[in-house]
Write a structure and sequence with these properties.
single chain; 149 residues; 5 helices
Length: 149
């Protein structure tokens, strides 16, 4: 009966509002929007944390520095006042998103493995742990206006 006719379906609702017009949302590189994605992120975070401790020990400076380093974006000198509570300064968004890009962190792990550099490997594991745990608790990359994407 309805051959050739398509029924319009409403778009699925999400808990995150769409980006305002003129501020394109950055591409998702690692999901944190679903319970399944958060569980995957938590598993990756636990695995990289455990591996970092096993490889470097509790006193591994590269691991701990890289674990904390991505949030140094909050200290960005060019930052202006955020437009709203829970937002980042628009001047800080690019740096924050770059430091929270899992491709860079896993690239550092690969570089450590390929060059057999223990400090590079530990730094990559710490960095990946930070990103994964952020995703596990619901913090992701930011839109250009500083809001969580």
């Amino acid at each position: 009966m309805t051959a050739g006719l398509e029924i319009a379906r409403p778009a699925p609702r999400t808990s995150t509002p769409p980006a305002p017009s003129g501020t394109a949302a950055p591409a998702d590189r690692w999901t944190w929007r679903s319970p399944r994605g958060r569980m995957l992120s938590a598993a990756v975070g636990a695995a990289t944390f455990g591996t970092g401790l096993a490889v470097g020990g509790v006193a591994s400076l590269p691991f701990w520095v890289a674990l904390a380093a991505p949030d140094l974006a909050f200290l960005h000198k060019g930052a202006t006042s955020p437009p709203a509570r829970g937002h980042l300064s628009p001047n800080t968004v690019r740096l924050y998103n770059t430091l929270h890009d899992p491709r860079l962190a896993t690239g550092l792990i690969a570089a450590g493995v390929l060059t057999t550099s223990r400090p590079l490997l530990l730094a990559g594991l710490g960095w990946t742990t930070h990103i994964a745990m952020d995703r596990a608790v619901g913090f992701g990359i930011r839109r250009p206006d500083g809001a969580i994407h």
